[in-house]
Amino acid sequence: MGKLRAAQYACSLLGHALQRHGASPELQKQIRQLESHLSLGRKLLRLGNSADALESAKRAVHLSDVVLRFCITVSHLNRALYFACDNVLWAGKSGLAPRVDQEKWAQRSFRYYLFSLIMNLSRDAYEIRLLMEQESSACSRRLKGSGGGVPGGSETGGLGGPGTPGGGLPQLALKLRLQVLLLAQVLRGHPPLLLDVVRNACDLFIPLDKLGLWRCGPGIVGLCGLVSSILSILTLIYPWLRLKP
User: Fold this and answer.
1) Burial class (CB in 10 A: 0-12, 13-18, 19+), 25
2) Are the CB atoms for 32 and 15 separated by under 8 Å?
3) Nearest residue to 186 via CA among 243, 141, 129, 144
4) pLDDT value at position 198?
5) Fewest C-beta in 10 Å: which of 19, 92, 121, 214?
6) How far is CA 159 from CA 56, 121, 125, 144, 181, in A?
7) Is 147 left (phi over 0), alpha (psi -120 to 50) or beta?
8) For 158-166, what is the mean pLDDT?
9) Rounded CA gap, 63 and 151, in Å?
């Protein structure tokens, strides 16, 4: 499935590149047809995915963390609805249900897909926040144990001290820099979370473009879809890279 998705978005990216460089219309048509066939094949292979997503939602209901429970359950429910709409689209494109309004069902499917991705990114943000708080507390304990002060604190008498004119802006810049460094450290130390953030962020461009909320163009959509697909394949090859639960 991941390879088919990667091939489909590679065709989308290739078609955009051929169009920009003035390739022959016949070659562009062949690439578009190949992309369409790959899309239809993926829809056929996803016929049972709605049931799988519902089962995943049932399992997520029992998570102890209320925020994770909400984000993961709602994400799986939206994925189930997305796959259901995708099945209707497959029936319309394959000729089994020729009267299906494909544009309307495509918009519905991308809407559910967008909601699912928003929930995924919310879950990622929550996990990043928890890890940053844990790392910050660990750093504070190490500093206290070694007798060091807290960077940017008023007790050091440095920038941002209460008596320093205009010290608020440098102190804010220092805090922002420390937060960025802490974020980078957390993501570097948790590759599954990093891959999940990048993959969901890349996927987000697809429904945003299809729904007309943010027109990115076929080149950006193809590139983001290809990157996301490669990352998904990596999580299949190396299961430890898959974010759990």
Assistant:
1) exposed
2) yes
3) 129
4) 97
5) 214
6) 51, 35, 30, 21, 19
7) left
8) 46
9) 37
Q: Are 69 and 118 in contact (CB under 8 A)?
A: no
On whether the CB atoms of residues 63 and 72 are closer than 8 A, the answer is yes
Q: What percent of the chain is predicted at pLDDT more than 90?
A: 71
Taking the C-alpha atoms of residue 31 and residue 235, their distance in angstroms, rounded to an integer, is 28
| Contact status, residue 47 vs residue 25, Cβ threshold 8 Å | no
Alpha carbon of 209 to those of 66, 153, 202: distances in Å?
A: 32, 45, 12
Q: Considering the entire predicted model, what is its pTM?
A: 0.86
For 119, how many CA atoms within 13 A lie in the half-sphere containing its CB?
A: 20
Alpha helices in the chain (DSSP H): 2-20, 25-45, 49-60, 66-93, 102-145, 168-189, 191-210, 218-237
Band the pLDDT of 151: cuts 50, 70, 90.
Answer: very low
CB atoms within 10 A of CB 78: 22
Tell me the CA distances in angstroms from 208 to 24, 78, 106, 140, 201, one per residue in order: 30, 16, 13, 41, 11
Amino acid at position 200, single letter: N
Q: Any idea where the domains of the chain sit in the sequence?
A: 49-133+187-241
Q: Which of 1-5, 65-69, 235-239 has the lowest mean pLDDT?
A: 1-5
Tokens representing residue 29 in the block: 């048509």
| pLDDT band per the 50, 70, 90 thresholds, residue 167 | low
